[in-house]
Design a protein that fits this description.
This protein is of the alpha/beta class and 497 residues long. It is built from 22 helices and 15 strands. The relative contact order is 0.15.
Length: 497
Amino acid sequence: MWIYGGFTSRGGAMAALLLLLLPAFFPTLFTTFIYASPSILSESIIAKPRHSSLFKSALQRETTPEEKAEIWMPLANQGWKPVPDSGLFSTEFSEKSEGYLQVFLDGGLNQQRMGICDAVAVAKILNATLVIPYLEVNPVWQDSSSFMDIFDVDHFIEVLKDDISIVKELPDEFSWSTREYYSTAIRPTRIKTAPVHASANWYSENVLPVLRSYGIAAIAPFSHRLAFDNMPKDIQHLRCKVNFRALVFVPHIRALGDALIHRLRYPASKDEGPQKFVAVHLRFDKDMAAHSACDFGGGKAEKLSLAKYRQIYWQGRVLNSQFTDEELRSQGRCPLTPEEVGLLLAALGFDNNTRLYLASHKVYGGAARISALRRLFPLMENKKSLASSEERGEIKGKASLLAAVDYYVGMHSDIFISASPGNMHNAMVGHRTYHNLKTIRPNMQLLGQLFLNKNLTWPEFQDAVIEGHANRQGEIRLRKPAKSLYTYPAPDCMCNA
């Protein structure tokens, strides 16, 4: 019997239906109640394997030494390397600033990371002095960590000192320019009309006059607000420099990350040298599950609860899908469950002695949802299992810092894989491409179709997976028009040696 939100399936369905009716009658009371009572949208479900036949075969899998050696083999040199500092990264720097530029960045850590890179580029375009970007509190993660809590601000300023002027805070004469000031009324110094993927000319025509008139301009929102195409080469190089050189995490995040990496490579039970490990970013939190509108086996109660979640957190901006679950899966639009990630890894040739590092925020469904993955890969670790509560003290309850540790460990893993495309996936793929590191990109459409076929045998599944991922393990892919250079760093950030 399914259990959801502390009720049986029948009771859970009734409770979820009540959630749909409450807002119409008591909107203020409902909003207060729902945020004060997270248990109303509980994630306690009992998740049984949905691919029983494949799962049983995967548990009995055997991997030959040759297969194991091939899967762990590092990427060969592909003839690309990072653009050297000499010449290409240098840009003319005018000490006469047009004014102060503020940006307010929403989203999670990796979306904010890309926004920081774009903010530096816009400051360069406008010849403005950049104020260390303000990170908005994400309504889902509820983390108020600042730029300085996450990134080494002195390193950031030092690396970019020859490119733009950066200040940690505004001088007293502009101290009024705060997030609160802009949230109370329309202000002439705030630009809120920046289009998605705006051109360099748009900023020169629309923001520069504000800078010259008031000495300051604040752009909010500022996510994905700078185009990737038709941009001067020095601006592209500057964005690369910020992303791959200027943004490093604060020392305590790096120290904790190094400790976790050492414990993964040198477990107490092993004494034959360093071990290899795979970093797995599940990206299977409730936010992702609700956004996808896919069916994850929780029955009617789960469907109603996820629909309610969409209504509460996105207020109609994310609609219930008009596609069936089968259509969504066959199009590759459903995130892989932990069980499906485990089956993918097993089919690729990873055996049950493979060490996994679980890089993920709270997993939707909790321990029950992860149990199938853990059975396939019992040597699975995460921040909690590898570090003491004292070591985790500085990052506890702070989603951005937790994500930063996962990012750091993921960058040092032998192989990285993400359960579905997203900001963490995109940032990690680009960063690891830049350093020629092995990164498995799941073929979502293929996998969706394979998992829909309940008659597929393990050999058929394994052959299809291996063939479908033969060229998805870190091979250089040149950036196409409108695509992000943070995901596809060649050729903007790399040169063909």
